[in-house]
Design goal:
By secondary structure, the protein is of the alpha+beta class. The chain has a single domain, classed as 3-Layer(aba) Sandwich (Aminopeptidase). It has two helices and five strands, in the order E-E-E-E-H-E-H. Strands 1-2-3-4-5 form a five-stranded mixed beta sheet. A hairpin with a 4-residue loop joins strand 1 and strand 2. InterPro entries: Acyl_CoA_acyltransferase (IPR016181), Gcn5-rel_NAT (IPR045057), GNAT_YJDJ (IPR031165).
Length: 90
């Protein structure tokens, strides 16, 4: 799956079978805010949201971006994948 950072739309996205799954974000005070994860109904059940989360969190780590998580899916993903917990600061 090819995931790109669509800077104009403020989202990381992947096109699969003509549909687009994405993670919306916003920049504020040099911090990236993860707002929402969306996977079209036709693509659900394939693990795309998890692949998007892994990609985005890895990118955040590589770039050393401060991050705030507002997306419930990302919060649960981090809870289930403790290797990403160090990215979250109070």
């Amino acid at each position: 799956m090819n995931i790109i950072n669509n800077v104009d739309l403020h989202r990381f996205e992947a096109e699969v079978d003509g549909e687009t799954a994405f993670v919306e974000y916003q920049w504020k005070n040099e911090t990236i805010y993860i707002l929402h994860t969306f996977v079209p109904h036709a693509l659900r059940g394939r693990g795309l949201a998890g692949q998007l989360a892994e990609f985005v969190l890895t990118r955040i780590r590589e770039e050393q971006w401060p991050v705030k998580i507002y997306c419930p899916f990302f919060a649960k993903y981090i809870e289930e994948h403790p290797e990403y917990r160090d990215l979250i600061h109070a």
